Amino acid sequence: MALVAGTAACGSDDDLLRTPDGSVISTTTTRFAEVNIVNPGRDYSRTCLAPTPVDAGKTDAKRIVVTDPALLDALCALGLAPQVRAIAAPSGSVPEYLGPDLAAVPAIGDTPTADQVTAAKPDLVLSTPETAARADAMRSTGALGSARVASVDVDGDWQKAFLAVAAATGRSAAGKVRIDEFVAEATRVGRVMDAAHSQVSLVRFTPDDTLIEGTSSFGAQIMAIVGVARPAAQRTPETVVQTDANFTDADADLILVSYQGDGGRDRGEDVLLSDQWLDMGAPTWKRVKSVDDSIWHTDPGLASAWLVLNDLKDCLNSSSAEN
Fold it and tell me: Which parts of the chain span the membrane according to its record (predicted)?
């Protein structure tokens, strides 16, 4: 693991690296089990896009409360992060990749109080079927006033979910433009980088299994838009568990790996350093890179799609050799 060097402050009662005056020194991990991490230390303060205009004749929502953190990606991609005034969810529910501004939005829990709702003063409450109880809890406080409550289904196709959030915020036209812009850029990147002639494998380490991804995972869907080729064994939607019998199905010109939590990291380290793995073609030629599991697999949306695309640009454009 590569760390930014620093001197620990005398008398510090934690394990953080600090300057002599006590300030915390940031650390950036650049490798995972001898595999280079793609875009380590990425600046998440730049994830959210520029503001979008409201549709003609629609009233703009200036103060938004969401009941499901899954809605935040779309709001981030629509440039509406500054309008989000509260999140009716437990503290720590905001994915890191959405940046410090959304992470700083007050989390008011599953059952907000009247004072919390009054402080947020929403004119729009954006909810999902799965978190309808949180919206109901806000209504029961009697503090919503004339705020509009809209429910959006974010399960299933990520593009449809994004467009649904765009419509709920009065930005149907802008939402379509944002999707078209992404697809156009992803297609351009694939053409310029000759992505169709690079077979890229996706492998995910969970605490229980090593998974060889098919075409249905979020990252795989973005790869399809770019036009990245996949190994023959990974051209069906199904995700399969890696076993001794299908072990080499994970091999390709380039392998992108990710891990889910500490348990997935431990499993990944065991697999990536095993003789069986290192005997495959891509590991032999140092053509294995590690990507962020949250961005590639667990938090689909347009904001994360741009981050996946940037990862692919880095992977397809850089030297295949690890340092």
Answer: none
